[in-house]
Structure formats: structure tokens, C-alpha cells
Amino acid sequence: MRFLVLGPMAAVALYATACAAPAAPAGPPTAASTAPAGPPTAGTGPPAAAPGADLCTRLVVHWAREALDGDTYGDYQSMGLSHGQYEILRDVVDAGRAVRRHQGARAAVSLMERQARTACAARYRHGTPAKSPWS
Q1: What distance in Å separates the CA atoms of residue 88 and residue 23, rounded to the nearest whole number?
Q2: What is the rounded CA–CA span in Å between residue 87 and residue 26?
Q3: What's the rounded Cα separation, in Å, for the pair 50 and 48?
Q4: Which of 11, 31, 95, 101 has a CA between 20 and 30 Å from the CA of residue 118?
Q5: For the chain, what percentages of helix, strand and coil (3-state, to nearest 5) are there?
Q6: What average pLDDT does the segment 108-131 reach?
Q7: Closest CA to 122 of 70, 77, 62, 60
Q8: Within 10 A of 36 (CB to CB), how many other CB atoms are there?
């Protein structure tokens, strides 16, 4: 019995082909299938890539909400954060916990969102802060 050994690129191509949308059924063309494609409507197509500050903010806010009630953070890389983003997270959660004690969870989350947005905007104001994605 022979086995086919695929390189990494061939395996990706095979996977992509297997996951591709099925072909249109054969038959006579319809008005819908022959109509020219119009401009895409809202919600179609791939989402636009988020700039670094927006992605940073979304990640930090997500993990800040998770950590607000917990007592540990976990490994920053398993969270998908860089070291700098993790530092922002720790500062944001510390501030959020202090506000929660006096003003409640809603005020804490609001503060964490604002601080994350501000800190991430400052970190990415000149583009990517470092050559390494983990710094």
C-alpha cells in the first residue's frame, strides 16, 4: 500500500479545496445567475481588518471583563495578547476593581473600556509598536 505524503502547502490547498463552496447545479441559466453582480450589501464579504489600536482595545476589554471577577489573569500569550497589551490589561483591571468596590460593576466596565481605548490608542499611535508581535 502506498501513502501520499503532502507538504504543508499542499495540505493547505487540499483543505481549502475540500472546504470550498459547492458548485452551482448544472442546468439552464436563470435571470438571477446571468445578472451582473451589483455592489456588495452591508454585511457581505469579509470583515475589514481592524487597525492595531482597535484590535488591542477589543482584546483588552474582553479579558478585562473576564478578569474583573476573577483573581488571576493567566498567560498573556494564551490570551492572544502581546506583553504590552497585557500590561494595559493589568492596569485596566486594577482600576476597574477599585471602581467596582465603590461604584459597582457597570461603572467599572465603563471605566475599563475607556482606559483600554485610550491606552491602546497611545500604544498604536505610530503603527505597530515593535517588530516583535509579542512586545
Answers
A1: 47
A2: 57
A3: 6
A4: 101
A5: 55, 0, 45
A6: 89
A7: 60
A8: 4
pLDDT digits (tens, 9 = 90+) for 6-54: 444 444 443 444 444 444 444 444 444 444 444 444 555 544 445 789 9
The type of residue at 118 is T
Residue 91: burial class (beta carbons within 10 Å; 0-12, 13-18, 19+)? middle
Would you state the cell numbers that stand for residue 133, as one nine-digit string? 508581535
pTM: 0.59
Beta-carbon contacts of 70 under 8 Å, excluding residues fewer than 6 positions away, are: none
Cell of 4: 501520499
Using a 10 angstrom Cβ sphere, with 0-12 exposed, 13-18 middle and 19 or more buried, the burial of residue 1 is: exposed
Question: What digits encode the pLDDT tens for the residues 66-100?
Answer: 999 886 677 888 888 999 999 999 999 999 999 99
**Inter-residue contact 124 to 56 (CB < 8 Å):** yes
Contact (CB, 8 A) for 88 and 120: yes
Task: Kindly tell me the sign of the dihedral angle through the C-alpha atoms of 64, 70, 73, 79.
Answer: negative
